[in-house]
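Nucleoside diphosphate kinase
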Amino acid sequence: MWQKTLIIIKPDAVRRGLSGEIIKRIEAKGLNIEDMKMMHLKRELAEKHYEEHKDKPFFESLVDFITSGKVVVMIVSGPEAVKIVRTMMGPTNPAEAPPGTIRGDFGIETQENIIHGSDSVKSAEREISLFFDYALGGSFQ
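Structure:
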């Protein structure tokens, strides 16, 4: 099933010069980058993005981290794009991420874990609408 998903290359990856390598992996997998931009997230947008974690003790540090530097935000599409990207990323904790995954190869700690990818088609739709303010046309599945 054709899907769209949102990917954020986080500030730690941008600072370490890993954006190109991550983009290369996405393209080599055969996924399409439909749109991409580099930006410095404002706190308000970061809080909306992470609103599901608002009542958790790590919310503030999560928002502080994602707003600490530039990020690369992408809309990526392809067959089963959400699942494929999540598999490519590896588990949230880089210590548990297998070699060959983005977090397994480049991640160091759980919070600064290189990359974000939408966890469902519904989340992708919400997240894309937060970061890209135009109609995409077509469906998310």
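The domain at 2-131 is CATH 3.30.70.141 (Alpha-Beta Plaits).
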